[in-house]
């Protein structure tokens, strides 16, 4: 056995029997990370931070919340007015959900831009999409808990999506509700699931990290690390960079929590749920709007539901839809343009999802939906046959060390 | 060479200062974040607001007792008979575990007001209802671990360490008390 790297005798004793310290040292300290990562690589750790924040504030909120149709709304108002620092904890949880989605969406688009889903990181990507799905389910059920008007009618509309399933749809909806409408049984099961799903997410996140650490992070150039000259140890280089990014993130987050806590919410949700009256204009939380727009764009109940779930399903098979062997968009001049079109398309879908389903909005929703699926199902497989990619650098070190020509890159390599 | 090593030392001192102050700031930050999460478990504003109870004693006959709720706990009010008052006042304090005179404990000798929670481990003692076991000293008896309290709610026998607690209360009129 080689000599232990730990000086502290207690750490050494434990590590010899349970190598947690070696594991952490290997995965968080020495872990070789490409040296050219830009700030878009901060969003993974930010998402992890958001998840922990949501779990901690959520556990604390559940200590003061009552999952019953007669008390839920009042218990949330009690948290806001009477519980010590309750307003702060709830606003962190409420805005934390939005910020979690902001961070995760940037994380996903970073993956799309730099081709982080391509071999050998397909499972890493798929686990990520699974986390997104779990997040959506968790966020949706969490939004039901305050039992406001938007909670109630959001729950009614979303659970009714399942009634589109032929033959068994109605039975499934009754089963989801535990009755014949969204009621106390629904609220109770949503509370239970909203509590447990975040821990399932933690489990999938751990798998996501195991898969990540198998081959390490992708990087802005998208070529494989060729040796230690292309990497730096994770700590202190990326721990410090992540902490700096975290402090920037927290500045925005604190600004929202303290100055605009209800900016991303709906005033209607401060009216207690009333099963007799639907609010005039119901919309989901902003992070669901693009999918909601797709749902409404299809003039058929089952079709709308299928396309909406299809919008996420295509993400699962993306590693095989994209036939290009070049990862980073930096070397894909045509795809790069389409990437930005896709981003704008998703933002447009989000905007359309918030607009009433009539007139020009319906037409635009259909065009935007059509583009979304065109991008994934046609563009990704076919573009590589047309696109002429730019030459890839020989190594990660080459563009960083300023070697414009291949000759200088060779010189660098030979010096090694 | 000495000059060089001196400047190195200065740098090390500066670095130590930076590291220690960074950790200190991080510690203060973590503590300030943790505090709201801990403090939310303390009584909320509405719980504190419910902290007083008014009781009308006009229908309480001599020898009778009522139990009212105050802060989620039972409060015993007993209208003592003259014999009970005499017993409570005349007993010697010498053998008591927690010596207190009846005058100290009961401002209005007719009505005794006690928090009905045994000072041992928090059970509710018997003695409020007419058929209840009142213990060897005629006051209250805790069935959980056998603590005997007298007419003044003082511990006389059994494991409880102190007398039954007296809540803060005052007489608003001859027959109405406000607890809390």
Characterise this structure.
The complex is a heterodimer of chains A (416) and B (180). Chain A is 66% helix and 1% strand. Chain A has 17 helices and 2 strands. A two-stranded antiparallel sheet of chain A has the order 1-2. The longest helix of chain A has 32 residues, at 184-215. The relative contact order of chain A is 0.12. The model of chain A is unreliable at 403-416 (pLDDT under 50). In chain B, 31% of the residues lie in helices and 21% in strands. Chain B has a 3-stranded antiparallel beta sheet with strand order 1-9-8, with no helix packed on it. In chain B, strands 2-3-4 form a 3-stranded antiparallel beta sheet, with no helix packed on it. The interface between A and B is medium-sized, with 14 and 11 residues.
Task: Note the total helix count of chain A.
Answer: 17
The major β-sheet of chain B equals: 3 strands, antiparallel
Radius of gyration of chain A: 24 Å
General form of chain B: elongated
Q: What's the rounded overall pLDDT mean of chain A?
A: 93
Number of E strands of chain A: 2
- Percent helix range of chain B: 25-40%
Taking all Cα atoms into account, the compactness measure Rg of chain B is: 28 Å
Q: Kindly, what is the distance between the CA atoms of the first and last residues of chain B, rounded to a whole number of angstroms? A: 76 Å
Write down the overall geometry of chain A: globular
**Poorly predicted runs of 5 or more residues of chain B:** none
Count of DSSP H/I helices of chain B:
4
List how many beta strands of chain B DSSP finds: 9
- Uncertain residue ranges of chain A: 403-416
Spatial sequence of strands, sheet with the most strands of chain A: 1-2
CATH topology of the domain at 21-276 in chain A: Cytochrome Bc1 Complex, Chain C
Most extensive chain contact?
A-B, 14 and 11 residues
> Structural class, from helix and strand content of chain B?
alpha+beta
